[in-house]
């Protein structure tokens, strides 16, 4: 079985020996899934770390098969799909945690929201999809496996401990400032929800009956935080601040969100996201880095002073 080279490299990089073993069993696993669900799988899509391919049932229904390494990541995505289920997200038609497989509703034609030429229209479409993602309120008693906004704060704190002089283009002062913002936001959060966790242009697909979100990662936190990944994607080479301001305005108005908290999450997460992308060769995501100062500038223009002295 010929597998995409990039897919093999990614799986091996992220999952090490377990990934190598999983790749070796994949051909047999595919046959087992086809037999169990009475389907015939087609040629896979462009792959990252999961094997995803269109399929057709013996009754002629078109579906999508997603095969993952069994484990926490698979369970979180499946739990998120179930928690967020409704008109705005792709539906789960079947699953098997032992095999690490999900049979999903196929969204056709499947164009991503990144194909939309109008910035305003793209934001309005995303807002309408997000309105349908009705994640449940999370209390302290909820026993959920999802990552949380507090975990993101701790991730940044650990990075600072490991890189006391700063990370790439991020100075120690910048990292400390972002950590203080994360701490403030988490300490002042009143309601936490189950969130999509990876809501952006490439995870919103056009269907025959409207747009659908796909590939939730599952995250617990405020809804304002869930829009930041969208903010950081599909940005122009120039005029980033103006685009961010338009997105902030549309999302806060359409979804009744707190504008200041959205901007603060944007600032804190863009620092974290930039740090995540820094590599051994000194490379990093330039757009993520540019948004840091843009979020702070917009906040200062509206609030008059920075949150952290």
In whole angstroms, the N-to-C terminal distance is 59 Å
What's the CATH class of the largest domain, please? Answer: Alpha Beta
Radius of gyration: 20 Å
Order of helices and strands: HEEEHEEEHEEHHEEEEHHHHH
Secondary structure tally, helices: 10
Structural class, judged by helices and strands? alpha+beta
Task: State the fourth-level CATH superfamily of the largest domain.
Answer: Aminoglycoside phosphotransferase (APH), C-terminal lobe
> What is the total tally of β strands?
12
State the shape: globular
Strand order in the largest sheet: 1-2-3-5-4
Give the tally of structural domains: 2
Give the assembly state of these chains: single chain
Rounded mean pLDDT score: 95
In CATH terms, what is the fold-level topology of the largest domain?
Aminoglycoside 3'-phosphotransferase, Chain: A, domain 2
> How would you characterize the largest beta sheet?
5 strands, antiparallel
The CATH architecture classification of the largest domain is Alpha-Beta Complex
Strand content: 15-25%
What would you note in describing this structure?
The protein is an alpha+beta fold and 309 residues long. It folds into two domains: 5-106, Phosphorylase Kinase, domain 1; 111-303, Aminoglycoside 3'-phosphotransferase, Chain: A, domain 2 (Alpha-Beta Complex), CATH 3.90.1200. Helix content is 48%, strand content 16%. The protein has ten helices and twelve strands. The chain has helices at residues 5-37, 72-83, 119-131, 149-162, 172-187, 223-226, 228-231, 240-255, 259-277, 286-303, and strands at 39-41, 51-57, 62-67, 92-96, 101-105, 109-112, 137-138, 147-148, 192-195, 204-207, 210-213, 219-221. The strands form three sheets. Strands 1-2-3-5-4 form a five-stranded antiparallel sheet, with helices on both faces. Strands 7-9-12-8 form a four-stranded mixed sheet. It has a three-stranded antiparallel sheet with strand order 6-10-11, covered by helices on one side. Helix 8 (240-255) crosses helix 10 and helix 9 runs antiparallel to helix 10 (286-303). The relative contact order is 0.11. The model has no long low-confidence stretch (mean pLDDT 95).
């Amino acid at each position: 079985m010929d597998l995409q080279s990039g897919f093999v490299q990614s799986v091996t990089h992220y999952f090490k020996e377990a990934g190598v073993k999983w790749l070796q069993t994949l051909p047999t696993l595919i046959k087992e899934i086809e037999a169990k669900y009475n389907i015939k799988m087609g040629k896979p899509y462009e792959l990252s770390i999961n094997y995803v391919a269109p399929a057709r049932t013996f009754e002629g229904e078109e579906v999508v098969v997603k095969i993952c390494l069994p484990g926490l990541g698979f369970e979180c995505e499946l739990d998120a799909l179930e928690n967020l289920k409704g008109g705005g997200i792709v539906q789960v038609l079947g699953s098997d945690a032992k095999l690490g497989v999900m049979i999903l509703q196929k969204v056709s034609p499947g164009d991503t929201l990144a194909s939309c030429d109008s910035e305003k229209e793209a934001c309005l479409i995303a807002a309408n999809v997000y309105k349908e993602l009705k994640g449940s309120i999370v209390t302290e008693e909820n026993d959920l496996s999802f990552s949380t906004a507090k975990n993101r704060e701790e991730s940044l704190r650990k990075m600072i401990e490991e890189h006391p002089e700063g990370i790439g283009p991020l100075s120690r002062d910048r990292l400390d400032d972002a950590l203080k913002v994360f701490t403030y936001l988490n300490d002042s959060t009143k309601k936490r929800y189950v969130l999509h966790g990876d809501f952006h242009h490439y995870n919103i697909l056009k269907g025959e009956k409207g747009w659908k979100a796909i590939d939730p990662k599952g995250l617990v936190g405020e809804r304002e935080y869930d829009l930041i990944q969208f903010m950081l994607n599909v940005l122009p080479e120039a005029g980033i601040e103006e685009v961010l301001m338009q997105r902030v305005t549309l999302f806060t108005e359409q979804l009744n969100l707190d504008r200041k908290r959205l901007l603060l999450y944007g600032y804190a997460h863009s620092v974290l996201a930039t740090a995540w992308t820094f590599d051994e060769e000194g490379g990093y995501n330039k757009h993520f880095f540019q948004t840091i100062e843009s979020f702070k500038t917009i906040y200062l223009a509206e609030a008059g002073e920075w949150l952290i002295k």
